[in-house]
Amino acid sequence: MAQPCNVVVLISGSGSNLQALIDSLGEGNPARICAVISNRADAYGLTRAQNAGIATAVLDHKAFASREAFDAALIESIDAFQPDLVVLAGFMRILSADFVHHYHGRLLNIHPSLLPRHKGLHTHQRALEAGEAEHGCSVHFVTEELDGGPLVVQGVVPVQPGDSPEALAKRVQIGEHYIYPLAVRWFAEGRLRLTNHGAELDGAPLPASGQQIRDLPLPR
């Protein structure tokens, strides 16, 4: 049994990915969510954490004069929980270079596209407008590049005829709820790490696209 891996999760909203992470705990999973921190006091994810008996904190970014000042306070708040891993789960803030450097190699994010395609917002609409046959979601280590950083795992979702952005988003979210707990567990078990050469799983370099998973539990 691996040593417990302390995880701090950062959120800004409903926390559906947080819930997927909470639901994945136990059954030999060494990941342990020790705190959930939000920049919004009304984030429903805080209620999800409290219902699971997880410590919560709120740090309102509007109370700080600059991004750097907020990030410095956020680092202090996170480090009070002595995390091994920090997980961004719908945390709607662009992080400063100092923050990213502080958590280098132990900071994961999930993005609703098959990176490097469709960085930023409105990914489902953009995938449809581009006429793509496949869409999905990506877990990656965080670097200074927005939605950049070495890829860990991608969930691939087929684009169906007549898809709307909303319908596509629902299927992509199923993929998110599958691959994010998987990546966090890999890290907690010591299987996943970031090296000078990129992301490695079980000591072997991951491909540029990360490990792609196509057999997601999607509705028929």
From TrEMBL:
Binding site for (6R)-10-formyltetrahydrofolate: 67, 92-95, 109
Pathway the protein contributes to: Purine metabolism; IMP biosynthesis via de novo pathway; N(2)-formyl-N(1)-(5-phospho-D-ribosyl)glycinamide from N(1)-(5-phospho-D-ribosyl)glycinamide (10-formyl THF route): step 1/1
Entry-linked CDD domains: FMT_core_GART
Site feature (Raises pKa of active site His) residues: 147
Residues annotated as binding N(1)-(5-phospho-beta-D-ribosyl)glycinamide: 15-17
UniProt superkingdom: Bacteria
A GO term for molecular function: phosphoribosylglycinamide formyltransferase activity
EC supergroup of this enzyme: transferase
Catalyzed reaction equations: N(1)-(5-phospho-beta-D-ribosyl)glycinamide + (6R)-10-formyltetrahydrofolate = N(2)-formyl-N(1)-(5-phospho-beta-D-ribosyl)glycinamide + (6S)-5,6,7,8-tetrahydrofolate + H(+)
HAMAP family reported in the protein's UniProt record: PurN
Protein's job: Catalyzes the transfer of a formyl group from 10-formyltetrahydrofolate to 5-phospho-ribosyl-glycinamide (GAR), producing 5-phospho-ribosyl-N-formylglycinamide (FGAR) and tetrahydrofolate.
Family, as annotated: Belongs to the GART family.
Name of the protein described by the UniProt record: Phosphoribosylglycinamide formyltransferase
Provenance organism: Geopseudomonas aromaticivorans
Taxonomic lineage of the native organism: Bacteria, Pseudomonadati, Pseudomonadota, Gammaproteobacteria, Pseudomonadales
Gene transcribed to yield this protein: purN
